[in-house]
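On clarity, I found the account of how folds are encoded harder to follow than it need be. Since the whole study asks how a given chain folds, the encoding of that fold should be made plain. For illustration, here is how one protein appears when written out as sequence plus structure tokens:
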Amino acid sequence: MITIALPKGSLEAQTLQLFREADLEVRRTDRDYNPRIADSRIGKIKILRPQEIPTYVEKGYFDLGISGLDWVHETGSDVVEVADLSYSKTGEGNVKIVVAVHRDEPVDDVSRIRPDSRVTTEYPELTRKFFERLNIPVQLFHSYGASEAKVPDLMDVVVDLTETGTTLRKNGLKIIGQIMESHTVIIANRESWADPGKRREIEEIKTLLFGVIEARHKVLLTMNVPTHAMERLIAALPAMKKPTISRLHGIDYYSIQTVVQKNAVNQLIPRLKECGAEDILEIPISKIVP
């Protein structure tokens, strides 16, 4: 039985949705910090700030955790990175930790930042190491939110997390460098990962979560096709390996099933219709486990 730390705050909604779709629903009330998952492989669950989770997983308070790669690096936690997840605090895909200054500053590259500039950030360790590598002395101020609002009145430079840079630009800032890219990661305690029983349970939970992620981007198509149109239709039909084909009883038709990319299905269906497909059904998929 394993213990899990799940993230509170910006990663919370997407993480809980992922577990729910994997049939690992986290059951709790609004003020319940000790939720439950009805699965015999999972014991204690805690909802914690993602900043704390890597440290707690490293120390063995939890076998498994979900946090941002940025916080694994910021805390310097010695954990096993089990898998990357396909979302961040702003949605699907990666986010970036960037360096920005006010748009009126005559600085276009981090190497030209003035020595002893005031830098505000939620990532003091990553920022300190970054400027040390550049051999630029700076004054670091730990930010507890709204970092972009502090430049230029209180601070000269901000190091912040962004996906597109839109919020920074709206606040009159320009990006002049990047420290790292980040995304959500599944992390494990090293001793737990080395334990065969716990590692098996961790791998099984990971399989269920990734089954959901894989399924989110695909749909099942099923259709009936007259025999004379079969070859033309099969030539136009994508599949994970090969489509499933079965003969319909008593008539000169076949039933075909295949899995296709969800973002391509609206253009695919009219082509299949032109190739002779009939009775086309598009069916959502809850999990795909390769």
